[in-house]
């Protein structure tokens, strides 16, 4: 027997993957039934187990355990899945016709009722067929387990699958007592699989099937008038130990073997760390969600390694130290990996939440369902996005401060015109993430966290206004600059009013949440920068055009206010002003050469004409007398004006 190949066949894993991938996430039983038909056809072709061609029917020989392969077991499983999906499809159509018969009257109601009854009987036959295929699969797996060709975990999964089908069939036939026994034993086996799981994915698989049959166990217990029927764990603990060995052959021995097989498996890469929210665990009950969260966990470990100064050899200088620029580049790359993994996790969680909403299933009161997990993943995605944007912002500001220190001797330093718009764009992204985070239900339900997010929103708005004001400085638009600094001061006061009460009530956790640390010292620092830069902007504006809002005023020279009036009361020392201006006064100027005779004569005649004009008396204007009538209208025709 040692020479026979070992088989690895996990019925629950295959069924879960196929159901989620081919329509059952949205209760599309027809699509899943067609998929199972195509899959069985391909398996029969590959295993050469077809029923012949055309109308010729060829009966198949029984499966030989000596030559059995994993494909033979998959064939039986998909036959059972196909019959079960067909049964569920016809059951749903029967319920629709039954509701139609109740809402209508006459012959239409009778026809709908008759068709509904026919579909219900057909669904029962298909369900029996599904149980037949599952029982045949179980018998083959038991024989393989006896030959040590199948593990205890695989046999437990096949036993659980068969019990679930039997329990659901009995539940549909309103045989609640037998259904409760079957489903309780199946739930007990699923709990054993979850406890002995070597990976978080295997544990989530068992938990997912346990969640599926939980409502049916609760309904059966309620119909049987059991005490505390709402407590599924208590019902299972009471019923399962009494009937477990009767329904499952050598159940205790199989479970003991299961513990021995998984006991040697240590904590590997497949183990997901516990996720906490407000010191309570976040339930991850779906295998596909575990897969993407494991990617997130690996990306976070790489990020923590990249943030350590000696965590990587790349980016080191000759002295062995890692520069801030190299660390920031590695950090941004690590954040991109985390954001990619979290985006994938958010997509999976959103699809699971939509599927749960369409199926109409709801979690028990006080428990955290897939909608909570989806909100948690979105929060983590937004927080990591904020961290990435803040890291980029700090990197740009670090480069600016380094350049300012290098040019500390010069009064003015040339700043790249793209720097401040880039910072504003990053802060816009931070604002968008924080606003989306504020709308999450898990944030809205926590008053402290909601206040912290609001405070960071106001602080980010203040920073955005501050750096946006610097964008207008090279354009000499000082009015817009000062208006933005005033808005920044208003947002800063709002942030202080929100942040101060939380720090007073909990001074130990000042700066929380950790993805965006914020303290009163940060507010004071930004307020000081706003005050100094606002004064500097005012001085530059006054020096530019005297504080005028008209941008064209700086192009033309304007006299200071009261300049002409001041000259009437102040004697200006023009000689002194000329000396300070670098011009020689006329008294000390060199003698000018005598002009030519013709030019002197013309100048003398021009001066005489000017004197005559001055001495000539002005012609008196005629006195304007009031005239009216036709003479005033036609007076201009006879020379009167």
From TrEMBL:
Compositional bias ranges of the Basic and acidic residues kind: 303-321, 600-618
Segments for region (Disordered): 303-326, 584-641
Superkingdom of origin: Eukaryota
Alphabetized UniProt keyword annotations: Cytoplasm, Nucleus, Ribonucleoprotein, RNA-binding, Signal recognition particle
Recorded GO MF terms: 7S RNA binding; endoplasmic reticulum signal peptide binding; signal recognition particle binding
One Gene Ontology cellular component: nucleolus
GO biological process: SRP-dependent cotranslational protein targeting to membrane
The protein's name: Signal recognition particle subunit SRP68
Organism: Lentinus brumalis
